[in-house]
Amino acid sequence: MKSLSLPMVKMIISMCIFGSIGFFSEHTGLPSLELVFVRCICATLFLSLCWVLSGQYKRERWSKREIAQILACGVFLVFNWVFLFKAFELMSITIAISIYHLAPVLVILIGSIVFKERLTLLAFLSIIICFIGTLLVIGLNSGTSFDELLSSGVVWALLAALFYAFTTLLGKGVSNMSAYAMTVLQTTLGIFILLPFVDFNAFEGVTASNWGAIVATGFIHTGFVYYLFFDSLRYLPTRIISALVFLDPAVAILLDTVFTGFRPTGMQIAGIVLIFGGMGFALVKPKVKETSGQERAI
């Protein structure tokens, strides 16, 4: 347990910091696309430095297949960030982050379709529970139009969750290259993808306070958090990682209710509970039936 204490502390810090990203993004004064562009620049600089100083760049095993896979994954990651920040612009952090955390359940659902993975009873229940929870959080009714959904931020939050799920699924099988190399490639790609679309006029009138939030979002919420996350990931068992991941939305919701004054309705609270309850079901691994020594030998 002592050997896990430092990685666990790093994971806890990374999840708590990441949970505050929505709160900080509201104070940057930048639209979602421009904010992600700055985030990619900061993350590339910070993680490249960590990559070089750690000496990991000397030990990389480059593979054309993996590079192509990582870059394709990077496209989904960048759009995932853009959609998430767009959702933060249009709706409360609490609702946006709750919808965004449907991603693990979407991974199970898409995986069962694309990779023909067997859908367990718990996984099926988690999908149903999360679906009901999402309807309650969004507050859908028969008269809700697509334009109303778009302007409310719901569609952007759902797209962010979907693209995060695609990022997770596409990242499967990358084993030779380090997490540093992966992230540096992806954030560098993000700079070139977003550059043609960046409105540099958006940076005019940005105050010193705004720049403080922008720098924090770039270097702390992306660079430093990814360093802590990747540095602790390899040492922690899946069950601990799965539990600590819940710190991210917990911090986000706490900051939203305490500092921005958001008060969810009773129906939305029920929906949030169902979404995270469904996530809990999704993270439970089915018990493997014990077999006899003879059966195992066969």
TrEMBL record:
It is found in: Endomembrane system. It is a multi-pass membrane protein. Residues 11-138, 152-281 form the EamA domain. The chain crosses the membrane at residues 7-24, 36-55, 67-84, 90-115, 122-143, 149-167, 179-198, 210-229, 241-259, 265-284. The keyword Transmembrane helix applies. InterPro entries: EamA_dom (IPR000620), EmrE-like (IPR037185). Keywords: Membrane, Transmembrane, Transmembrane helix. It holds the Pfam family EamA. Its main location: membrane. The keyword Membrane applies. Belongs to the EamA transporter family. PANTHER family: ACYL-MALONYL CONDENSING ENZYME-RELATED, MEMBRANE PROTEIN. This is DMT family transporter. It comes from Paenibacillus apiarius. The lineage of its organism: Bacteria, Bacillati, Bacillota, Bacilli, Bacillales.
